[in-house]
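Per your request, structure below.
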């Protein structure tokens, strides 16, 4: 059990999905079940080591489900678990804020 005491729920949430890649993986999986190679294509700047690590952590924390099919070669698919689905409205809000922020930044650059 984690012995760290969180000062507020926001700190707990941020610590759980900390880092840029976990959020982006969850965002991509909202579009549907994906294989490792499909995730890699949608996140071209992530290293194989980092993608594998982040997927393991998301699975351990019950945000995603990893399904292995008994084929040769093995087929592995990733999809959202219940927690991964529950966080999607927050990610959608982040997307909307990012769009507004980008527009504001662009407007300010044009004024210069």
């Amino acid at each position: 059990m984690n012995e760290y005491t969180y000062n507020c729920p926001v700190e707990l949430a941020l610590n759980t999905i900390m880092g840029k890649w976990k959020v982006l993986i969850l965002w991509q999986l909202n579009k549907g079940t994906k294989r490792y190679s499909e995730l890699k294509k949608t996140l071209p700047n992530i290293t194989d080591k980092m993608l594998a690590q982040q997927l393991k952590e998301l699975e351990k924390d019950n945000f995603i489900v990893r399904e292995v099919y008994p084929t040769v070669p093995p087929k592995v698919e990733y999809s959202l678990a219940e927690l991964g689905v529950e966080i999607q409205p927050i990610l959608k809000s982040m997307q909307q804020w990012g769009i507004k922020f980008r527009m504001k930044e662009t407007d300010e650059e044009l004024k210069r």
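The mean pLDDT is 91.

Regards,
D.
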